[in-house]
Design a protein that fits this description.
alpha/beta; three-stranded antiparallel β-sheet; binds glycinamide ribonucleotide; 34% helix; Rossmann fold
Amino acid sequence: MESSCRILVLISGNGSNLQAIIDGCCDNLQADIVGVISNNPDAYGLIRAHQNEIDTSCVIPHQGESRGEYDARLDAVIARYQPDLIVLAGFMRILSHQLVEKYQGRMINIHPSLLPKYPGLNTHARAIEAGDSEHGASVHFVIPALDAGPVILQAKVPVYEDDTPELLAQRVQEQEHAIYPLVVKWFSQGRLTMKNTEAWLDGELIGPSGYAPD
Ligand code: GAR
């Protein structure tokens, strides 16, 4: 990418991943966070954006509005930022196929599980309930099917016998904050692409469990 990669981050809440990406962009001159959009006006992530002088917008759902109608309004706001990359960082809405298809290959998400395990919600409780010995987070390209796009990078954490969903979530989030800025950096350096619903890094196909160094 010749000029700086224009990054737009979509959030709904705390924005700790947004913060990690902001911090990561300080030493990533190829990336510029041009805006943050939230569907929730009370999202703490909006304060983080203001503290870092990043432009923000809220697209608040209207009562009775269809997903398609909301996404059309969201897309109009997205378009204002002319992003090269859309980063879903705890954006807790399912996007319509139409919107996802428009940005396919330029939209990434972080999900708190080792995909394909536990798409959807309550991932930490589900991992504990299943008796899993490891859990984690996945960064993936977004495709229309929920949490099903090609995985780019995963991070694993142990699950302990006396774990609670809250403790496990904390452990997973620490890892999220390490892997998400790294993936954003790869994309902004032009090293990461999606072709035919596969993720590629430096011209090499990334395997189903995400990038793993040799
Ligand atoms: C993160 O843990 C992220 O994995 C999860 O929401 C949290 C947002 O935290 N995303 C999803 O569950 C998406 N399905 P943050 O607002 O502190 O970054």
